[in-house]
Amino acid sequence: MNPKAFIECNDYDVGPFQPISFNPVLKWKIFRSGWANHPRKLPKQITMRARLNKFNIILGSSPYSYGQFCADCKELRFRLYYSDLDTNDPEEAIYLTEKALYESLRQKSEFYENLANKLEINLED
């Protein structure tokens, strides 16, 4: 028997969401929280959104995968375009997403800075 099958996320209401275990950088808001219309008891579906500048970052749990969260960062053209975060805890999903965003954007900035430096050197010749 799969213990994940009995996980219930019953205490997350629509509105601002502030994790207890850490302070997120982005302001997260739950904009959808409800039960799937299914004859078996499934975990609650939770969808959260935060904005990084003008770009939406969406985290959603799927009741059909035992409440596992996925990150949708397609507006940023980020590698977590639609990535399974392997957690059914909304706080952990936020933490993992913000951490991955930070690391990826840091790497991208170094990459583009190196490209700009090469252009600068070539333009001086």
Question: How do the strands and helices of this protein lay out in sequence?
Answer:
Blueprint: E1 15-17, E2 28-34, E3 45-52, E4 55-62, E5 68-72, E6 83-84, H1 90-124
Antiparallel strand pairs: 1-2, 2-3, 3-4, 4-5, 5-6
Question: What can you tell me about this protein's structure?
Answer:
- The longest helix has 35 residues, at 90-124.
- With 125 residues, the chain is of the alpha+beta class.
- It is elongated, with a radius of gyration of 18 Å.
- It has a 6-stranded antiparallel beta sheet with strand order 1-2-3-4-5-6, covered by helices on one side.
- 28% of the residues lie in helices and 26% in strands.
- The protein has one domain (3-124).
- It has one helix at residues 90-124, and strands at residues 15-17, 28-34, 45-52, 55-62, 68-72, 83-84.
Strand order of the largest sheet: 1-2-3-4-5-6
Q: Radius of gyration over alpha carbons?
A: 18 Å
State the distance separating the first and last CA atoms.
69 Å
User: What is the domain tally?
Assistant: 1
Strand content range: 25-35%
Indicate the structural class. Answer: alpha+beta
Number of helices: 1
Characteristic key phrases:
125 residues, six-stranded antiparallel beta sheet, 1 helix, disordered N terminus
